[in-house]
Amino acid sequence: xxxxxxxxxxxxxxxxxxxxxxxxxxxxxxxxxxxxxxxxxxxxxxxxxxxxxxxxxxxxxxxxxxxxxxxxxxxxxxxxxxxxxxxxxxxxxxxxxxxxxxxxxxxxxxxxxxxxxxxxxxxxxxxxxxxxxxxxxxxxxxxxxxxxxxxxxxxxxxxxxxxxxxxxxxxxxxxxxxxxxxxxxxxxxxxxxxxxxxxxxxxxxxxxxxxxxxxxxxxxxxxxxxxxxxxxxxxxxxxxxxxxxxxxxxxxxxxxxxxxxxxxxxxxxxxxxxxxxxxxxxxxxxxxxxxxxxxxxxxxxxxxxxxxxxxxxxxxxxxxxxxxxxxxxxxxxxxxxxxxxxxxxxxxxxxxxxxxxxxxxxxxxxxxxxxxxxxxxxxxxxxxxxxxxxxxxxxxxxxxxxxxxxxxxxxxxxxxxxxxxxxxxxxxxxxxxxxxxxxxxxxxxxxxxxxxxxxxxxxxxxxxxxxxxxxxxxxxxxxxxxxxxxxxxxxxxxxxxxxxxxxxxxxxxxxxxxxxxxxxxxxxxxxxxxxxxxxxxxxxxxxxxxxxxxxxxxxxxxxxxxxxxxxxxxxxxxxxxxxxxxxxxxxxxxxxxxxxxxxxxxxxxxxxxxxxxxxxxxxxxxxxxxxxxxxxxxxxxxxxxxxxxxxxxxxxxxxxxxxxxxxxxxxxxxxxxxxxxxxxxxxxxxxxxxxxxxxxxxxxxxxx
Length: 704
What we know:
Oligomer: single chain
Catalytic activity: [phosphate](n) + ATP = [phosphate](n+1) + ADP
Largest sheet: 9 strands, mixed
Keywords: ATP-binding, Kinase, Magnesium, Metal-binding, Nucleotide-binding, Phosphoprotein, Transferase
Protein name: Polyphosphate kinase
Pfam families: PP_kinase, PP_kinase_C, PP_kinase_C_1, PP_kinase_N
Cofactor: Mg(2+)
């Protein structure tokens, strides 16, 4: 049997990951409001799955048909459809269970048929004043090209207007969640203050259909049914030389609006003739996913479901804390110059990063700032500091990734704002995404330029830094900062020869370096020296790397993996991967860092990286991995990983069956790694402060 038999299709593995998200919604130990929000995360994930991964499978089928070859993708598509149907059924049952759980806590999510007369009248007035101005029905007739305006993954109400003896009329109403909150709190009658009633915007519109259509159309009955359409999110970038990348990206965003659908979800009691009409106007093909569903779609809005009840109904706050290394110095530059600093978000505050660039924006010693951004917050303090720095006469270069999926429009707008402020904006090369997380600040000190660098696993994004776990390394180590400078030069001139001795940089040397590091562990194992590999990644699907890990396993290298999402590797197979164990952790924070540790005969090498072990990240993107040199920081990262490997609350076993079984607790202490890590790091930072205070107290004053 070939090694290909031991590669799980990445699409099925991704659906298995989303099943783990659904497990969190089902977990009764999770506070009820958080369970509702996990339903939203599951739904949002599934939208992206269809936009990207399902669309890719469909594309492969079409290409294989044109080439006249047998397509494995057809069989894969069938498996995907079956899995999604099962997940959606589980979702619907779980949603109903959660509604009952909320009702037991006096929180009621109601529809338009469950209102008292007083509440219905209040909502009709509310609709006229607050919602109606945002409602414009689109009538479905031969003059309307639905695909030209229908928004991807938005919720719509498909409306049927019927009059006896006439053909029914159809219309679409967009649920205006861009303008309005989707959840509306309804006033309670006197004496029922403990009760909290919430209604979806969708149901307010259903209640008030007559206010929309009456006086314009003659009908006997009007009914509304939920529907949602998902498009292929791939780009069709033109290669015309005279077009800039910015122009191409703007065109591709327009093209996305007219990209063909890959999924159509409709309310299961929608009349059959209405379903047929929508399938026709949406140009749904035999390879697209057509799914009957419940009364509500676009559950991604449930990520922001409000807690109208008591505090215990959602997770207790874990306030981020400060790094002792930064606290003990007068400014960020003194702190980084003293020694390398490692932050782990969201446990550490992201304020250290925003404070670094704020200080750099006005520090008279700072000459230049370079940073590359993939995703940034809506009101980004990082970007604002770049503008402030330019206003203060600093040379500022911002590399903006225009191809950051689903953030392209925001990044195009940021690039224009920066350019108008006098910032040098670099877009990189079409087809080569820049996914690295770098910042380089040059400062004149004692007559020479000194560089201060940042290399991270996560984006410069204030919001996600509160909900994603990520490592950030701050360093003034000249071998590293000089190579960060080389990366920025490489971004601007990707075809100029460049060599990296310390950083692992895609697509220049990542595959070669990763292969060499794994092969070195094989050599250590063969020589009976200490050998082992510890990985933490979001996705592990690159066939070359997976096969080399199989080889290492067969040579006796012990391999431990924490993988959040897709994993094509199959652990624990005798003769293939018997020395490999893998787990996945899904909890309140999204696990996002990439860490690679190699035992190296007892002299451990460790890297943090922006790159997952996917072919695109290794060969087709600009990614950067950095060695962790400071033994103190190595120990800290390893301690964090060991806590995660000991998780007996949120860790699932990765296996061939994709069973998502929880790691068995046995008689061991129940450890929830994310809260355990919070306590560990908070204690470590306090200890650093105490040690510094003790050192200061024990050091005699210098006599002048």
